Amino acid sequence: MAANRDPSTLSNYSAWRTRHTTASFKIDFEDKALKGSVVLQLESQTDKESNEIILDSRYVDISTIRINSTESKWELKEYNAPLGAPLHIHVPGGVAKGELIDLAIDLKTTSKCTALQWLTPAQTSNKKHPYMFSQCQAINARSIFPCQDTPDVKSTFTFKLTSSLPVVASGVPVGDHSATPGEEKLYEFEQKVPIPSYLFAVASGDIATAPIGPRSIVATGPNELEECKWELERDMEKFMEVAEKLVFPYKWGAYNVLVLPPSFPYGGMENPIYTFATPTIISGDRQNVDVIAHELSHSWSGNLVSNASWEHFWLNEGWTMYLERRIQAAIHGDAEFDFSSIIGWKALEDAVELFGKDHEYTKLIIKHEGVDPEDVYSTVAYEKGFHFLYYLEGVVGRENFDKFIPFYFTKWSGKSLDSFEFKQTFLDFFNNLGDEKISKNVAEINWEEKFYTPGLPPKPEFDTTLANQCYDLATKWKDANFTPSAKDLENFTANQKLVFLAEVQQSGELSADRAQLMGKTYDFLSSKNVEILSAYYLIALKAHDSAIYQDAATLLGRVGRMKFVRPLFRALNKVDRQLALQTFEKNKDFYHPICKGMVEKDLGL
């Protein structure tokens, strides 16, 4: 029996493979639990050699387990942090290779479930109804139901979800989904494209919908519906058409966006059919919709073609950054590709500085034995992965790389792969082109160095046309006698403002007075764009401008996106630990369990 290649699962998925998952749950807002059952259709990979099924499980309350309707013996083994407690289910005599069995597990989630967040009515915008949503990436699906919680296993899904409020899930809606809040109703969804467990997604609350394209809707709270519709409707179909030209036609049917309450910990989560998105992208200026271009790109990279384990996360995120930037370039011009890459490079520098340039977590392939993938999570997979693909594009030329893109996604569609399989696919494709020069260039790629060297990769020469204005203004701020004017920024996009702020932050400390002057002159404090507001707060905190400490703490009570929460807490902690601790204590139940756990580590709690 082959060993698992994913160290982040305790399941014996080389002996059994999940082919279909039926999740039947009542969403119980009063008990803050999902109650019901999951049925895993498992295919035996051995000829009666395995007499037990081992599943990932973490703090799930299991009542009974049946195999083909017959009750089965089972036991939860010792808890193994951070992976959970393996669930061992007896299969006396094993099962013939290729034979299917139905494994039914009756269960309910517990208060220790790391995938679900339950919001009170007071935590929602119109204060009328409770809300719940899931976030399963990377290894949190196992805290909803026992499963083979690895991206190396994919199954089709049926969702049967009963709730007193509207429901969305990572499948295609089946039947009547009209709802009357307060009336219990069964909502059914089918996902016919096989997906890994981390893409299991569900949300329920006072959710309204509006069209944002011929095959897209936005779903969100009734109060936010019109502004979300306006923010997204201009670009949605354009993004889809460009992505389809780059790769191949979209395979999932509809592409929808659920804009969640502010405690959602990520910018977006690429759950199929319904991208889950942070409300911080709704900035009133359509300047943050690149998050949607990113999550849409996941429909090919990550969702159709998945990393086999979190050690190879760059295969999901590096590809997605590359596709996102190609979409931006097609819509806004080639300079946008380079400008976005410059912003990404700064984020990569920050991540490498945080971990240390020789740290394991700054490699492209990262060892995960005994490690929680959440601890590894950073922009490294995104930006170092992007830079590797950009380097490969340079080796073979864009025209040839563009032929490789649909070949790669077609070859691995519906499957999972690791970095070594990617390497072989790349070599096979370009060596078979019959171009001697390309074959010679490809032969000179040092794959070991690219995969395993920590720290920053070589910095490419990007077109700095859009960035030069930002750099020039940041240079002026190094002169303490420079007198700023609101006109300095009048032609800047939101992203140019961010590059300016990042450059100022990196170039040294401003005095508290100068930081205040910047905030007032450029009106950063009244910005509705959280990207800009948080970037300015980081500068002001570094400058020890005590006038904004409380403002930063207030923002930390309004947003739960880790991109903002974690750096702000780290910065606030350096200048006023007491306020940082008070702010965390006040808001810890507002944050998603994933975010809460990471901030606790950041604050040394």
Automatic annotation (TrEMBL):
One of its GO terms (molecular function) is metallopeptidase activity. InterPro entries: Aminopeptidase_N-like_N, Aminopeptidase_N-like_N_sf, ARM-type_fold, LTA4H, LTA4H_cat, M1_LTA-4_hydro/amino_C_sf, M1_LTA4H, Peptidase_M1. Keywords: Cytoplasm, Hydrolase, Metal-binding, Metalloprotease, Nucleus, Protease, Zinc. This is Leukotriene A(4) hydrolase. GO terms for biological process: proteolysis. GO terms for cellular component: cytosol; nucleus. Gene3D superfamilies: 3.30.2010.30, Neutral Protease Domain 2, Peptidase M1, leukotriene A4 hydrolase/aminopeptidase C-terminal domain, tricorn interacting facor f3 domain. The keyword Acyltransferase does not apply.
